[in-house]
Amino acid sequence: MAHVACGIDIGGSGVKGALVDLETGEYIGEQIRIPTPNPATPEAVAAVCREVIDQLDVKIGVPIGVTFPAPVFDGVIPYMANLDQSWVNVDVDELMERYLGRAVVALNDADAAGIAEVAYGAAKGRDGVIVFTTQGTGIGSAIIVNGTLLTNTELGHLEIDGTDAEKNASSGQKTLQGLDWEQWAERLQRYYGHVEFLLNPDLFVVGGGVSENHEKFMPLLKLKTPMIPAKLLNTAGIVGAAYYAAQHSS
Ligand code: BGC
């Protein structure tokens, strides 16, 4: 495997990229962040990704992983929850190759963050069934079984009590609806209790900015499964994208 790879994380507010040392899972040099264009159409975002790799001066041959806030099946986005709807059915492998002048490895943002936590972070060296969720505008998920990622799970869109789960239990909704920690924890209890019932995991890892405040909500939850906060926080998407790209670049 390469020792250095590049990760690019496409989010609703920013497109971020960095070179990553794959031995340590740490950035080499600075992270670049460019605001997500508005409207965030595929072509506009791809042009920003180009800008990111130019600023990072990523050499040809260095694997590049790019994350999307959506599932990516065979290089194509089947639906998009929280970014411009023009992404639906876009072949992102083709789009990125056209703009970046080289092949990239495209993957889901939560999958990237989840494998980063297993490779370098909170779940490093842990076997069994790990359910990683990332809390933000939506809820992203990654399931890792004995180190192997089950790609493109969408546990944020479980329908619970007639509602798309992320519309009720995401940290974005906590902010939008002005919920206090207790009120939000009730929703989390319903959500993670249901996921636990369906999957019986060995470990929950919770990422996203709100996991910095884990002591405000994790102690309020009554689950059989241990739950721990993510460790990499802001860097997880980029680090995981780089790691995955190094493993899957041809
Ligand atoms: C999307 C997922 C994504 C998550 C976090 C959800 O709405 O469907 O694919 O991982 O948001 O961005």
Number of domains: 2
Strand content: 25-35%
Percent helix range: 25-40%
The unique ligands bound to this protein are:
beta-D-glucopyranose
Q: What is the name of the CATH topology of the largest domain?
A: Nucleotidyltransferase, domain 5
Number of strands: 12
CATH architecture of the largest domain, by name, is: 2-Layer Sandwich
GO molecular function, one term: polyphosphate-glucose phosphotransferase activity
EC number: 2.7.1.63
Protein name: Polyphosphate glucokinase
InterPro entries: ATPase_NBD (IPR043129), ROK (IPR000600)
Which helices and strands, and how do they pair?
Elements: E1 4-10, E2 14-21, E3 26-35, H1 42-56, E4 64-68, H2 92-100, E5 105-108, H3 109-119, E6 129-135, E7 139-145, E8 148-150, E9 159-160, E10 163-164, H4 166-169, H5 171-176, H6 181-199, E11 203-207, H7 214-217, E12 227-229, H8 236-248
This protein binds beta-D-glucopyranose.
